Amino acid sequence: MVKKKVLLDTDIGGDIDDALCLAYLLSQPLCDLVGITTIGGEVEKRAMIADAICKAAGMSIPIAAGADYTLMPSSLYPTPDGAKHLANWPHEKSFVKNKAVDFMRQTIRENPNEISLLAVGHLTNIALLFLSDPEIPKLLKELHIMSGVFSKELEKNMEMPISNWNSWVDPQAAAVVYQTDVPVHTTFGLNVTTQLVLKKNEKEELFSTPLMEAVEDFGSPWLQSNDMTFHDPLAAACLFDPQICDYQQGSIEVEVEKEEQLGMMEFQQRVDGKRNIAIRVDREKFFDHYYHVVLNSM
User: Fold this and answer.
1) 144 near 116, Cβ under 8 Å?
2) Which pLDDT score, from 0 to 100, does residue 120 have?
3) pLDDT tens figures, 157-196
C-alpha cells in the first residue's frame, strides 16, 4: 500500500498523549511522517522533545518550532514539564520559534493534495498558516483535529471550558480553522477520547522498546498524577483505520465572545455539512490497533 504523508502539529511535552501519538506515527509502517511542528509555550523545547523521541526510534524527521503566543493576547503560557528530562536523550538544540508556518506552507505546496495534517495542540499554527496563505486549505488531503467535547453530559461533569484545552487556549485560532474548508475536516473530541483511558501499569510491555522508554521518560511528570488518555493517538490512528470510529457530518461553530464558554464548539448535524466529528469509538479495536503498530515496530 502507498504510504500516507502526515504532517504533525503538536504541543508535545505536557500530557503524555502527544508523545504516544508521535510514537504511533513513527511506528506506523504506512506513515510517511514528513514533518513535525510545535505549538505552545517554549516551542523550542517542545521541538527538542519531539526530536529526542524521533532519535530514540532511530529516525530523523524535519521539525520546526512554531508560535508561542495566541492570536489574541492571553496570560496563558503552558510550559513542557517533560523538558526536564531532555538531558537523558540525544537531541538537536538549534530550533528557533516562529518557523512552523513557513515549513508547513512549503511542505504542503511541494506535495499538493497529498498531506494529511494532524493537529493535536491548540490551533494557532494552523490558523496562521490558513490566514497567511488562503490557498493552502484546498491543497491539503485532509485535516484531523483533536479538540472539542460534543457531549452535553460530559460538559456538565467536567471543568469547562478548560477541559476543552486545545480550543480554549486560543479560541480565535480555532474559529479561523473551523471557518475554513478543507477537502476532509474531521474532529475527535472528548466524547470519544475519554473512553480510551489506560493506567500506566495496565499494559506492562507498552514501554518496553527504546522508543517507548523515551515516551515514558518525557511523560513521567504527567504520569505522576494522571492516567493515560489516548486523545491524540486516536486522531492519528483513524488516519490509517477510520473504522475505529463512527462519524456524523455537519457544521461546527466556535464560541469566541462569552468568557465562560470560550472555545466551546457547537455541532449541528447536517447532510450538507463540511465537518465530521467522531461520535463512537471501538475501544477494543483502537487498543488492539495501537499495540500492534507500536509494539511490533521494533
Assistant:
1) yes
2) 98
3) 898 888 999 999 999 999 999 999 999 999 999 999 999 9
Dihedral over Cα of 277, 281, 285, 286: its sign: positive
pLDDT of residue 27: 98
d(CA 165, CA 94) in angstroms, rounded, equals 29
Positions in the chain whose pLDDT score sits under 50: none
Per-residue confidence (pLDDT) for residue 73, from 0 to 100:
84
Sign for the CA dihedral angle at 86, 87, 89, 90 comes to positive
Q: What distance in Å separates the CA atoms of residue 117 and residue 35, rounded to the nearest whole number?
A: 10
In this prediction, residue 65 carries a pLDDT of 98
Measure the CA angle with vertex 83, ends 19 and 200; round to 5°: 45
- For residue 94, the model assigns a pLDDT of 94
pLDDT number for residue 297 = 66
pTM of the model: 0.97
Q: Characterize the bridge pairing of strands 228-229 and 197-198.
A: antiparallel
Which three three-digit cell numbers place residue 20? 504516544
